[in-house]
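Loading example: each entry is read as two labelled lines plus one structure line.
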Amino acid sequence: MLELKDLCFSVPVEVDGGIEEKVIIDHLNFTFEEGRFYAITGPNGSGKTTLARLVMGINQPTAGKVFFQGEDITSLSITERAKKGIAYSFQHPARFKGLTFRDLLAIAAGTDDEEMILALLRRVGICSLSFLDLPVDAKLSGGEIKKIELATTIARNPRLAIYDEPDTGIDLWTINPMVRLLKREQVERGTTTVVVSHNRAFLEVADLVLILVKGRVVYQGKLENALTMLTDMSICSYRHCDKCSGEEDAECYR
Amino acid sequence: MLNAIDKELLKTVADLEDIPKGAYNIRKDGKLLSRATSANIDIETYGDGKGIIVKIKPHTINESVHIPVILSQAGLFDVVYNRFEVGEGSDVTIIAGCGIHCGGPDPEGHAGVHEFIVGKNARVKYVEKHFATGPGRGKRTLNPATKVFLAEGAQVEMELTQIGGVDEAHRKNELILGPGSMALVTERVMTEGEQIAESRNTIILEGAKSRANMISRSVIKGDSVQNFYAVMEAQAPAFGHIECDAIIMDNGRNETIPSLKALHPEAELSHEASIGKIAGDQLTKLMSLGLTYDEAVARIIQGFLR
């Protein structure tokens, strides 16, 4: 349902007074299948968020194509992709002066009907009714705004839902209900789900785990078989860096 | 008595479909159009018809006064001085506003001074909207001023809005807060084209434990200019906050100067000010919910000025 063909993304960076292209996504090819649950993990700076943003159209790829349900959407805007059924939960959600949770839900759902809004809240389950008329501004805690972000994504009834680190700032006892919610959306509504996360709870329920390193998929498969690889990464995520010889001489301040 | 233009202006500035219930005073083209008083609220003419005195009896609860001004006479500049005496323990809403309909090339304008003497433990909600419309090219000017004196424990909530169409506005707000009193002032101004709006505010926290919060929201479109100045001065152990945000669109210009003066060691004063375009992450978020770029801009501005 979502096909990434030879996808590249790089940004110019200043190195020793000159400009060099830093590669973030490196000729990446992958096909996401309808109705499945994917978890994308990998060390910091491996390109996970960039990959998600390229799918939503927030960034444009330097080269390569994105196909959604057979159609080339590479040149489509964020709005056009949203209307085709792609939804995106931001890692650091925007805060607004003057817009409430109810406003965002109504925009997402395309209706401000009270019954429909309440039904959405029940479906999402992790946002209390008292949130509804709160302004989505800087006063909200990190956890509250992430719950709201997730609810607005679900309110879109997307064909493809992308969640970038949905558990940032979420308390421990909300993570499992959150995982169950995303799983339920996948199973009951057939939502193709892509979660970018380091949290084991999301990796465990995924049909397929992808590990990204330096903008390439270095592993795809079940979590069990990826555990050794992930454990290695957790010891030192700089193991691929040129300056560092790993555990022996980390050359960093760990 | 009210023609179609009058009705439209009244609806916009005072949310009135027709003549209101309760106490009211409607002023049209510099003259009294109609007035009603209630058992607890009296309205008297002041100084040769140049203004009114609204007297609210102590402990008047849940009553409202409407005092809209409408102008549709070309070349007229109407000046009023209104005084409100709110008796202690009252809880009232005062709805003011000025609507200008400009049909010709001559300028029209309105300047008003509203003075509030708010008694002990009284609560006042003051809503003021300014709006100008009409096909004429005459310059529309509105220069409102408010002076507020809060007695011990009094509370005032002021919502001051300039919706659109006003070419030039110079606003002045002065508040003096007695012990334990509280003021919340919210000002929302949108300008476009070549419009100019200036707001000067002075809030004096005179009494111990007085609290004030001044919020300013500006949207500056086209080649318009908006300047905002606020001075919050604490003369006692008091709490004050100024929050001013300006969204600049097109070639709008803005100067914002919040100023805090603590004349007492236990004063707590703070301010936050920001000027800038609409944040990119806000636009991206709303577009990811299916809105176009233009729809997202409109929704953000609508919320910001609400």
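Chain B touches chain A through 22 residues (CB under 8 Å).
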